[in-house]
Amino acid sequence: MYIDAHPGNRCDFCCIECFDDPILKGNKSFFPFPLFLSLIEEIATDSRSHGVEHVHLDLSGRGNPIIYKGIKPSIVKAAELGMHTTFTSTGSGLDNVTIDLLGKHAFQVKLSINGLNDNSYLQIHKPKNSFSLDKAKRNLVALLEARVQHGRERELLIGIQSFIHPGNAGSIFPFAEMVREMEVDYISFRQIIQRSGLPIDIPPGVYDEVDSARTLETSRFKVLSSSSRMKMFPVVDPEPATGFCFMSQARPNIEPDGGVYPCATKSDSSNIDWLFGRYNKPGDYKKIWYEEAANIRRKAPASCPTCYFWEINALAGWIGRVLTSDPAARFFQLIETAS
């Protein structure tokens, strides 16, 4: 079970690829903190009652999850429940306490560093504060040090997601080389899609740089990529008769207003017909996830075959491949980590 959790929709950046209208328009909402803990506990408990061995919690937020006041106790609660927690953020706002909690409890920390030099970082991320590429690197170092301090080099994945973007020309290979030497586990390069829905024109040389970065791979370090030249394919091919997608069964998407959706790409007010229900009080989860309305919506709509999810996010495709077994074991088997 993979819980895509967005406890808040505030951000201190205005990244050029962000599609999130509430963030862009300044509408701010947060999932009530005690209620959020109740929901993730219900999902974990219910999943295990059905024989699910591993429940993965992705604390990504529609924006920067560190702004959510309940993020620290949420990390601790997830660990108490035996969940695999992924924390996805630009790294802005990370403090020593949160870094230590992630080093101690998280399964994966994924930093979005979409601009790989000072100029492209500001151009792509458009931070509303004084955060910079240098500060992102310092937080990355602190996370790596926390992993070592807690003796979790073989348990905690620390990676970077970035963009195939013309502004990164000349920086892709040296940046990948730098993070490999820092003992980061992976870097992923995604095809950027603008808010208009149109891709940015990428000079061929930028793709060549991504190809070159792949030569840096070792038994410990991986370079993941997704582009027109290196295409990722769906992890689960839709069943011909029903168009089945595993997301509707194994990936509840939780929104700041309590909305529970079956999909990572159709989970906002403009896709209300996908809504399973809203979590308003403890005990609501089973009613939402198993009621007849949810079963009806699980039948894949016509838009599913055109889903862009797998093509633009190589990391998502990789995660999908390890959902059905222990993610940590499968990852370290994949990269043949030396003992």
Topology (elements, then pairings):
Blueprint: E1 2-5, H1 21-24, H2 33-49, E2 56-59, H3 71-80, E3 84-89, H4 96-105, E4 108-112, H5 118-125, H6 133-149, E5 157-164, H7 172-181, E6 186-191, H8 204-213, E7 222-225, H9 247-250, E8 253-254, E9 259-261, E10 277-278, H10 284-290, H11 292-297, H12 309-312, H13 314-321, H14 327-334
Parallel strand pairs: 1-2, 1-8, 2-3, 3-4, 4-5, 5-6, 6-7
Antiparallel strand pairs: 8-9, 9-10
Describe the protein's architecture and organization.
The protein has 339 residues and is α/β, with parallel strands linked by helices. It has 2 domains: 229 residues, TIM Barrel (Alpha-Beta Barrel), CATH 3.20.20; 80 residues, no CATH class. The chain is built from 14 helices and 10 strands. Helix 7 runs parallel beside helix 8. The two termini are 29 Å apart. One of its GO terms (molecular function) is catalytic activity. Keywords: Iron, Iron-sulfur, Metal-binding, S-adenosyl-L-methionine. This is 4Fe4S-binding SPASM domain-containing protein.
